[in-house]
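Batch manifest line 178
LIGAND: shikimate-3-phosphate
JOB: complex structure
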Amino acid sequence: MELTRPVFFVGFMGAGKTSVARRLARTCGVASVDMDTYIERREGKKVKEIFAEGGEEGFRAIETDVLRELGAKPDPLLISCGGGVVVTPANHDVFREAGFVVYLEVTADEAASRISDTSTRPLFQNLEAARARCEERLPLYEAVANVRVSTAGKSVPAIAREVQRILEKEGILCPQQR
Ligand SMILES: Nc1ncnc2c1ncn2[C@@H]1O[C@H](COP(=O)(O)OP(=O)(O)O)[C@@H](O)[C@H]1O
Ligand SMILES: O=C(O)C1=C[C@@H](OP(=O)(O)O)[C@@H](O)[C@H](O)C1
Ligand SMILES: [Mg+2]
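JOB STATUS: finished
ARTIFACT:
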């Protein structure tokens, strides 16, 4: 199948953005890129190290650069963003211009139960702070979303199938034209 526009996955840490985009890419035969993985390869450093060296500000600047680059690829991609992509106002323009945004909903508590090793996520160090951060970001996720998908109690394959049906209905995921 092929995409007519880039599709961005947003939502809090642990929502399943990386897993669902990867699963959908495999089952539909389309290309996907995970922004954090892409950033780590480009910078030659782990996300954790980028935060330690340049702070959140340094990470956000790289993130915006990469979002613009991936969103402008001639062959549209499934792009799993990092959970904080919505905190940078300029990123909202990238979403609006060309893309379709799938918001995967999760609570901080459910996310915490899914993430076994929070050491890779510098902004998910304690549950209290994560709950507050999640709540603070909710209106931002809602503002950029073209569609919301609840992930509570659902498996990754089930969520990927749900997203697939939405993208097909919207004419974003189509049978290959050539
Ligand atoms: N729907 C789900 N149900 C159970 N575990 C999940 C689900 N989605 C993701 N996970 C698990 O949660 C962790 C974080 O998932 P990930 O895809 O990295 O989320 P994100 O990219 O949104 O932070 C992984 O260990 C993954 O296997
Ligand atoms: O929510 C955030 O601010 C972040 C989420 C992470 O990605 P995931 O949402 O894929 O865990 C990663 O980009 C970085 O640690 C910052
Ligand atoms: Mg991820």
